[in-house]
Amino acid sequence: MARRAGSQGEKTEAAIRDAALKLIARCGYEALSMRRLAEEVGLGAAAIYRYFPNKQAILMGLLERHMLDLLTSWEQARLPAARPAPERLECFTRFHIRHHLPRAEGVFLSYMELRSLTPDNFDRIEGLRRSYESDLAAILEAGRREGSLAAPAPRVTARAVIAMLTGLTTWYRKSGPLTPSEVEAIYWRLVAGMVGLAPQERASGPETTSAPA
């Protein structure tokens, strides 16, 4: 775990994390060296070890922070379980897009660099991912029970939905022809179609649900 040394130490630690995120996203975890990271931040090669003992600790810290931020933001954005499943599903869909679009590098690491974690660290991150996935599966299962959603295999459907929504970060560009709101609307229609919602049932209140950028 990183060692902090007052406000300046916290700023340096944050700068190390930010530089590591960009370097790993650009070059891959295996190509990252502590010396190169230190140069990127403007530290001496030995100084960086005051904050992180090795690059595995840096990667784990990035992935864990990414998942904990996601779970905390989702907890604040989610609709109560008493609301109809289609509304909760739309809330999840729009939240996922809004949360992940500004975090493309973190998303890339969370999928492509899981393989670089030690077994214990892998299990920790997988547990956090399963927690988020389980929330969506629970929404789909509730919709199946109440007859509002056609989701015969909620867990599989949840994985398919998350994969589709997360894939946005590989192609969406602010300079492109679509605004984030337009992308949300398109993807909500796609998700709604996957679970059998009729067109007239696809517009509801959670459209205004927001996530911190």
TrEMBL record:
SUPFAM superfamilies: Homeodomain-like, Tetracyclin repressor-like, C-terminal domain. Residues 33-52 bind DNA. Residues 10-70 form the HTH tetR-type domain. Pfam families: TetR_C_24, TetR_N. Keywords: DNA-binding. It comes from the Bacteria. The keyword DNA-binding applies. PROSITE patterns: HTH_TETR_1, HTH_TETR_2. InterPro entries: DNA-bd_HTH_TetR-type_CS, Homeodomain-like_sf, HTH-type_TetR-like_transc_reg, HTH_TetR, KstR2_TetR_C, Tet_transcr_reg_TetR-rel_C_sf. Gene3D superfamilies: Tetracycline Repressor, domain 2 (1.10.357.10). PANTHER family: HTH-TYPE TRANSCRIPTIONAL REGULATOR RUTR, TRANSCRIPTIONAL REPRESSOR MCE3R. This is TetR/AcrR family transcriptional regulator.
